[in-house]
Amino acid sequence: MMSVKRLYLSAILLMAASVPAYAHVGIGATSSFAAGFMHPLSGLDHITVMLAVGLWAALKGGKAIWAWPAAFVGVLLAGAALAMAQVQLPFVEPGILASVVALGLLVALAVDLPVSVGVATIALFALFHGHAHGTEVPENAGGLEYMAGFAMVTALLHATGIAAGLGLGTRFRGFARAAGAACAAVGAGLVLGVL
Question: What is the pLDDT of residues 54-93, one digit of tens each?
């Protein structure tokens, strides 16, 4: 249990110490399904987090396989709706960067949390990602098509992570954990500004 506490403390410290990446607001067109679908594929932060959620769910197994990705997509959409309603959320960019590192570490260390704690952890990070997406929607656009696009590709990236994790099976569990370590390394590179 102490390692989980250290992991959460590390994530909080990373959020507090990281500088905003400004990788989201105002980037590209945000008024179509295609734009929403392509946006999560345009940045390492999005791709690595979505794959890490799937990998972590596969490592956990059972209910986590559907509950963790569903929580991410649901809260992602809620976060986007909050941003579109002009509700401010502090620490969005640092939270996104911390999510890359933290979720990568959760996979790399194969942290076995109860499903409900995993849902809460994933939901917190999804809120930041969703808020960033919602902030990008112009005030004169409804954003529903854009939201549908990024929700769909998010679910597909989760499914890819799950398929990879399950496909590797218990015999090759180390590969999934190595992918988590790579995700954490990407996050550290983004925090340090080298990626």
Answer: 999 999 999 999 999 999 999 999 999 999 999 999 999 9
Task: Please check whether residue 139 lies inside any domain of the structure.
Answer: yes
Which residues constitute the domain of residue 183? 31-192
How many angstroms separate the CA atoms of 28 and 188, rounded?
Answer: 25
Any domain includes 63: yes
Q: What is the pLDDT of residues 22-49, one digit of tens each?
A: 344 444 455 688 888 988 888 889 999 9
Contact 133, 39 (CB under 8 A): yes
At how many degrees (to 10) do helices 44-60 and 115-135 cross?
160
Task: Identify the burial level of 114 via C-beta atoms within 10 angstroms of its C-beta, where 0-12 means exposed, 13-18 middle and 19 or more buried.
Answer: exposed
Overall number of domains in the chain? 1
Torsion from C-alpha of 144, 70, 123, 73, nearest 10 degrees: -20
Query: Is the four-CA dihedral 74, 51, 34, 19 of positive or negative sign?
Result: positive
Tell the burial category of 182 from Cβ atoms under 10 Å away from its Cβ (0-12, 13-18, 19+).
middle
The residue type at 184: A
Give the number of other Cβ atoms within 10 Å of residue 169's Cβ.
Answer: 11
The closest alpha carbon to 46, from 185, 152, 154, belongs to 154
